[in-house]
Amino acid sequence: MDKKLRVGVLGGTGFVGQRFVSILENHPYFKVVAIAASSRSAGKTYEEAVGDHWKLTNEMPESVKKIIVKDIYEIDEIKKEVDFVFCAVNMPKDEIKTLEEKYAKAEIPVISNNSANRMVEDIPMVIPEINNDHFKIIDAQKKRLGTKRGFIAVKPNCSIQSYVPALNALKKFGIETVVVSTYQAISGAGKTFKDWPEIIDNVIPFIGGEEEKSEKEPLKVWGKIEDNKIIPATTPVITTQCIRVPVADGHLASVFVKFTKKPSKEEILKAWADYSGRPQELKLPSAPKQFLRYMEEENRPQTGLDRDYENGMGISIGRLREDPVYDYKFVCLSHNTLRGAAGGAVLTAELLKAEGYLTARE
C-alpha cells in the first residue's frame, strides 16, 4: 500500500469536523496530521479546544488529542504539513468561498462539505456513485486558478443524498416531475438534544436555504460538462419541503415521481437492486457494498433502526407503491452526517485518490 496521504481538517472542532476526525482514525489511505479552526481555538491541543463539546457517541481518537490546533488562515504553515484538506468550517458563505479558493491557490486540494462553492461552474459537486465523471472539470478549474495540484471539489447537500440516488437509478425511465418532503435530523444543524432542548416534542417546518438547495443541486449532479463548465440539467422539475424533526441523525425523504415512460414496480425494484457505481467497482474503503437496498416491511425504513446501514453509507428505500396523482411514491433514508456529510466527502477523496487527482506533495 502507498504511504498514507497527510490530511488537514478545517473546522475540525465543529460537529462535521469531529465526524471527519472520527472517520479518518485508522483510515487505510489518509492520516490526520493537522486540524485548524477559529483563532479562539488556535494554539490549544485538539482535546482542549473541543473541551466538553465532543458531540459524537464514540470517544475522541487518541491520535488527534494532542495535535495543536492552527488558525484556519495559517495557510502557509498548514501547507507544509498536508497533502490536502477537508473543509467543514462554519462561517458566512462568502468567507468560506474565499478561504477555499485561497487553499486551492496555495496548491492544497480542498474537499469541501460546505455549500459556498457548490454551484461554481467548474467545481465538481459529486455523489461518487452517480457523477464521478464531473472530476474531469478539475483540469479547467486548475487552469482558471493557475494551479498545478490545487483544486476544490465539493459534496452536495446532505438532504438530497437520501433521494437522488434512488431517482438516479430510475433515470432510464424518463423522470418528469419530482415532489419531495424531507424530515431532517437535528445533527444537520450541528445540534444535539442537549444543545437544542426546544426541538424535543416539536417539528419546525422551515430550514433556511434548504429547499432551494434541494431543488437545484440535483440538476447540477445530473448536468453535463460543456465548454469547460458543468451545465445543470433542465429536467426533471423538482419541488421540495424541508422539515426539521426531533431525530438525532438521519434524513428521511417522502418522494412522489412521474415518469415519461412508466415502469412496472418490478422494473423499479430491479433497477435499485442492480445499481452500483465506480466506488463499488474499485472496492473503496468507505464504499457500501450494496448502495441501494429496498426494504419490504411496510413500516421501514425507520430512522432509528436503519440510518447506520452499510456503516451509514448506504441508502434505504421502502414503501414503493403506485400513486393516483403521480406514477409512484416511496420513502428513502440516509445518514446525514455520514453519507450526507463527512463520510460522503471521505468517499469522494478516496475516489479522487484512486483516479489520480489526489497525490502526495513532492
- Rounded radius of gyration (Å): 20 Å
Estimate the strand proportion: 15-25%
What would you call the structural class?
Answer: alpha/beta
Overall pLDDT confidence: 97
The biggest sheet amounts to: 6 strands, parallel
The shape, in one word, is: globular
- From the 3D structure, determine the CATH topology of the largest domain: Dihydrodipicolinate Reductase, domain 2
Number of separate domains: 2
Number of strands: 14
Strand order of the largest sheet: 3-2-1-4-5-6
State the fourth-level CATH superfamily of the largest domain. Dihydrodipicolinate Reductase, domain 2
How does CATH name the architecture of the largest domain? 2-Layer Sandwich
Describe the structure.
With 362 residues, the chain is of the alpha/beta class. It has a six-stranded parallel β-sheet, sandwiched between helices. It is globular and about 60 Å long. Helix content is 28%, strand content 22%. It has helices at residues 15-23, 46-50, 62-65, 75-79, 93-105, 138-145, 160-168, 210-221, 265-274, 278-282, 303-306, 338-354, and strands at residues 5-10, 30-37, 70-71, 84-87, 110-112, 152-154, 175-184, 224-226, 229-231, 237-244, 251-259, 292-295, 315-322, 328-334. The mean pLDDT is 97. Helix 5 links the parallel strand 4 and strand 5 (110-112).
